Amino acid sequence: MRCLLRLMPDQRGQLLRAALGFSTLPLPSYDRALHTLRSWMHSWAGIGRVAVGMHRRGYDLQLTQYDERGWRATFYVTGMEHSPTSATGTGWERTLWRATQRAAWEALRNAEATSRMVTWKRLTRVRGDTVSL
């Protein structure tokens, strides 16, 4: 969690992460606040806020609809060529909002994992540790 807070030091980033996490909790929920959050996250306004929040973190969003089969949402690093190999978060779901939320969550988790790996490599280089796999 500390690595994630370093990735998102501002309050908006922490709220984005919390909203994405709570919106993925299983149904049903009788909590009014959670129901309100889900209703908002499952709207165009909610999708727009996720897209803006992720853009502030350095990601572009691509949305693709496949007839009645569902939606694919993909987040790419801003400024990079948008190819399947440069995708950092992808979600495929029947609903647009769920695909967007899943892709954003995956992109944030991948960023956290990358940050941990870079930190670990720096620590082992500084201390001169050798690691055998």
What does this structure look like?
- With 133 residues, the chain is α+β, with helices and mostly antiparallel strands.
- The chain has one domain (2-125).
- The protein has 5 helices and 3 strands, in the order H-H-H-H-E-E-E-H.
- A 3-stranded antiparallel sheet has the order 1-2-3.
- A hairpin with a 3-residue loop joins strand 1 (59-66) and strand 2.
- The longest helix is centred in the last third of the chain and has 32 residues, at 96-127.
- The two termini are 26 Å apart.
- Mean pLDDT is 78; it is low at 1-6.
Present the secondary structure layout.
Layout: H1 2-7, H2 11-23, H3 32-41, H4 44-56, E1 59-66, E2 70-77, E3 87-93, H5 96-127
Low-pLDDT residue intervals, each spanning 5 or more residues:
1-6
Distance between the termini: 26 Å
How many β-strand stretches? 3
What's the arrangement of strands in the largest beta sheet?
A: 1-2-3
Which whole number gives the mean pLDDT? 78
Helix content: 55-70%
Summed up, the domain count is 1
Instruction: Give the SSE string.
Output: HHHHEEEH
Coarse morphology: globular
Rg over C-alpha atoms, rounded to the nearest angstrom: 17 Å
Helix run count: 5
- The SS-based structural class is alpha+beta
Largest sheet, in brief, is:
3 strands, antiparallel
* Beta content: 15-25%
